[in-house]
Each structure stands twice: as structure tokens, then as C-alpha cells.
Amino acid sequence: MIKAVRTIKYILSAITLCFLLLLVYSFYTVPDEIYSVSDEDIRVNDFYTITYEESEIAGISRSSEAGRYKVRISLFNAIPVKDSSLTVSERQYVTLSGEIIGLRLFTDGVMIVGIDSIETENGSVSPGQSAGLETGDVICSINGITTESSSKVNELISGSEGKVLEIEYVRNGEHRKTEFTPVFSLNEQKYKGGLWVRDSAAGIGTMTFYDNDTGAFAALGHAVCDVDTGEVLPLSNGDIVSAGITGCTKGTNGRAGELCGVFTGNSIGVLFKNSDCGIFGVLNGCDSNTSEVPVATEHEIEKGPAQIVSTVDENGAQYYDIEITKISTDDSEHKNMVIKVTDEELLEKTGGIVQGMSGSPIVQNGKLVGAVTHVLVNDPTKGYGIFIENMLEAA
């Protein structure tokens, strides 16, 4: 009898210890922050239930309207474990694209992409360096006259007769002024400044999505940057045009591939923003009857199989298999995902990810999760992607 009682005590002690360990484990593993989307089921896992303290609705339930709530997590629907915060977002819907587009951008001011010296009767002189200008600076005005084009800059400098000019420019978002003195070039027999400037850019890329109701669209997933300086081109105005693929240079290890395309029509939309998260604008018109897809929050994205929608030949936008191999929620450069192309057809056509595919939508579990942004040059089968939430926030 005593032995039986002792055995029962041991069993009860073991159960109690296991229970306490489970409570401790639950406290540290149940998240402090829970994320959901309105009108969708929320669940921590099969062992826990969630109680909205404000409404005292217990159990696994559908999340309330968008907002932030205090909830209580209970084990086996009986034992409180901890209080957490529930953030509920509104589900958004957009129309997938994946179509190739032509881009034409005109800068707000002109960007300095090079500074040269001028041969004068007094030797080699660099007016740009003397004025403290640097590549990447954006000239806004000369003597109060707006410089909307490179030809305007050249006109003002060549017509200066060597007089001191006041240049207003922007560097890293800060407006500055400097005095600039053109010099007489022995080689060209006119006044020169030694400044190489750029006022526009053009190329092809991929549209990620658009909104049926407003016509607002997003593309690229990264900024359009100057090819020489790497600086984001400050957008004054621009548009997108219809484009077609004429060929593809396959990517190889150490060398990025590239889609070759041509502009095939007139303007189909205007540009309003060029940012680190992509380019944004409004279409001149869109088919409001096209089907929409839900937009995933970053907390719904998971490592594993997914697809991209890209146009790489005359067949138009097609789905290709990829795998999301890494997810980063705190990347300041918006390289939020690492993806790997697994589709044999796409690998045969392009070798993986190539220039021109930037902006290709990334789809997982029927939701739009992001867009392709960059290729890993040393392995073109891999690349980076941006969360679609970041693009929508920028838009």
C-alpha cells in the first residue's frame, strides 16, 4: 500500500513538473506580437486559444476590424499563459502584371556624372572641383535660372563670358549654393565648365501590379539610378510605354544577363515617384474587369515554394517556379527575400534572373508577397526580392 502511494506521488510530481515546464515553455515561445488580417482566422497553434479581453470572446476566432488589440493566450482553453498584442490589418487587393514596360524619366534638375579639367592658357583647370562640386550633385539653377536640361546648363556656361555664376544644387537631400567660374577652353575656343551632366534615362523593366479602381501602378521594386554615379535619379516627370522583348543575354556566374527590348507604342501611363522601393505612377487606362489577388503581409510570407510572373519572350507574362530561401524583416536596403529559380524552362531561357525582370511579382499561396529586385551576379539562379508591403507603403 505504501509503495503504491509512493508511486502515485512520483507520478503526480512528474505530471506537475511537466506541466510547470510546459507553462514556462509556453510563456517564452508564445509571441508577444501576433499579426492577422481582418475577417481571417487567427491561431497561435492547436494547444492555445486567444481571448479578446475587450469582448471576452474566447477561442480560435476571426480577427476583428483593423487595429491593435490586447489579447490573452490560454493553454488548453483553460490556463492563462500571457497577454499579447494583436495587430489586425485590412486585406488589400491588386491586379498582378508581370508585363514588360518601357521607362522614360526626366530628372528634376541635372545630375553631375563627371567632372573634367579644361586646358587653358594658364594650364589645366577644373572649375567644378574649385567650386566644390561632386559627381552625384544635382544642379537646380544657375544664376536663378532653372536648369531643366543638360543643354540649358551648357548654354548658360558657354554664354557666361567667364563671369562668376551662382549654382544652386542638391547633395544628399540638402540644398546648397556655390560660386562657379567657367574658363576659356583652348581646344574648343569657348567657355567651358568641365561638367558632364545627365537629364534623363530610359530602359525597360517589369510592372508589378496596378489598382483597378485608380489605375495606380508600381514597377521595378527598386529605384532607377544613374548608370555612372549609382545615385537615385530625382524625378521631375516621366512616363511608361508599351514594350516588347527582342531577345535575351543569359546570365552566367560572374556576369548578369539582360533582357533586350524595344519600345513598341505610345505612352500608357505617367510617373510620379522614383524611390528605393520602385517607381510609381498612374496608367492612362486599365481594364477594370481583370481579377484581383490578395496582398500578403510580411508575416504571412514563409520560406518554401513560390512563383514569379515574368515576361522573358514573345509569349508574354508567364508563371515560373522559384523557392524563397531566406526572409529578412529588418533589411534597410529592402532586400527582404532571397529567392532561387527552380523552373527548368526559365533557367533554359535566361539562366535565372536577368536585368529587365526587376519588378516581376512574387506569388505564394495565392497571394502577392513581393517583387524581384536584384540578381546575385555570382549565381544568376538567385536574387533578392522586396516585400510587397514596402512597395505599397512607398506608393
Tell me the distance between the termini.
Answer: 76 Å
Number of strands: 26
What fraction strand? over 45%
What number of domains? 4
Structure description:
With 395 residues, the chain is mainly β. The chain folds into 4 domains: 2-89, Immunoglobulin-like (Sandwich); 117-193, PDZ domain (Pdz3 Domain); 201-283; 294-394, Beta Barrel (Thrombin, subunit H). It has helices spanning 2-29, 127-130, 150-158, 344-350, 388-394; strands at residues 33-37, 48-52, 67-75, 79-89, 93-96, 100-115, 118-120, 123-125, 138-142, 145-146, 165-171, 174-180, 183-185, 190-192, 195-210, 216-219, 235-249, 258-275, 278-283, 293-294, 304-311, 317-327, 337-341, 361-364, 367-376, 379-387. The protein has a 6-stranded antiparallel beta barrel. The radius of gyration is 29 Å and the shape is elongated. The N and C termini lie far apart (76 Å).
Topology:
Blueprint (H helix, E strand, L loop, with lengths): L1 H28 L3 E5 L10 E5 L14 E9 L3 E11 L3 E4 L3 E16 L2 E3 L2 E3 L1 H4 L7 E5 L2 E2 L3 H9 L6 E7 L2 E7 L2 E3 L4 E3 L2 E16 L5 E4 L15 E15 L8 E18 L2 E6 L9 E2 L9 E8 L5 E11 L9 E5 L2 H7 L10 E4 L2 E10 L2 E9 H7 L1
